[in-house]
Design brief:
CATH architecture of the largest domain: Up-down Bundle
Number of helices: 11
Radius of gyration: 16 Å
Keywords: Oxidoreductase, Peroxidase
Order of helices and strands: HHHHHHHHHHH
CATH topology of the largest domain: AhpD-like
Number of strands: 0
Low-confidence stretches: none
Mean pLDDT: 94
GO molecular function: peroxiredoxin activity
InterPro entries: AhpD-like, CMD-like
Shape: globular
Distance between the termini: 6 Å
Pfam family, one: CMD
Number of domains: 2
Strand content: under 5%
Oligomer: single chain
CATH class of the largest domain: Mainly Alpha
Length: about 200
């Protein structure tokens, strides 16, 4: 079980209404949000931030944003967020070849140089200590404008919060996310780990 139990989806009406956003992105309200409801101001602020970060203001597609989230979550080791990110990438139209080869984004032909620059940005920004350098910056500016870079870092930062939240909480992972993770990430060793509901 998680460190703190998720509350019923009907616990806070305002959170429930805002959480309809996740029915599109994931097909369910995440247990992380249901746990945040213990302090509804947090759950509501988080959902609004999530919606703002995932809004498309430039050329950074919904699918690429979810792949950025996956790379960030992979770097930090949060299996819960890895599963959610790959599921959302699938639901937002990432190419099958990209989903099947996300682990090889640096070398696989399914990824463009612009996508590689974005995903390398995600990896470098998610490391501790932070690994953003002049090379990462130069490669970003070859393909993306400042607003788009802000959008990408918004995703990386949002998932920094989620990685800390869910790995510390041991959030139980939902069946739909497990299915997507096993399909696309299982071949390289993904498993539920602490998110199987029995850690604490």
């Amino acid at each position: 079980m998680a460190l703190v139990k998720p509350l019923d989806p009907n616990h806070d009406p305002d959170t429930k209404q805002l959480a309809e956003f996740f029915n599109e992105t994931l097909g369910f309200c995440p247990n992380s949000v249901l746990t945040m409801q213990h302090r509804p101001a947090i759950s509501k602020a988080f959902i609004n931030l999530n919606k703002a970060v995932m809004a498309n203001e430039g050329r950074v597609t919904s699918a690429l944003k979810r792949m950025i989230a996956w790379v960030s979550s992979n770097a930090t080791g949060c299996r819960y967020c890895q599963a959610h990110a790959i599921r959302a990438a699938e639901r937002y139209g990432a190419e099958q070849e990209q989903l099947d080869n996300i682990w090889e984004y640096r070398t696989h032909a399914a990824f463009s140089d612009a996508e590689r620059a974005a995903l390398d940005f995600s990896l470098a920004a998610s490391q501790v200590p932070n690994a953003i350098d002049a090379d990462i910056k130069a490669r970003l500016y070859e393909h993306w404008n400042e607003g788009e870079i802000v959008e990408m870092l918004g995703v990386i930062s949002l998932f920094g919060y989620l990685n800390r939240w869910n790995d510390s909480m041991g959030t139980s992972i939902e069946d739909g996310a497990v299915e997507s993770a096993e399909q696309y990430l299982g071949k390289t060793g993904w498993e539920k780990g602490k998110h199987d509901g029995s850690r604490y």
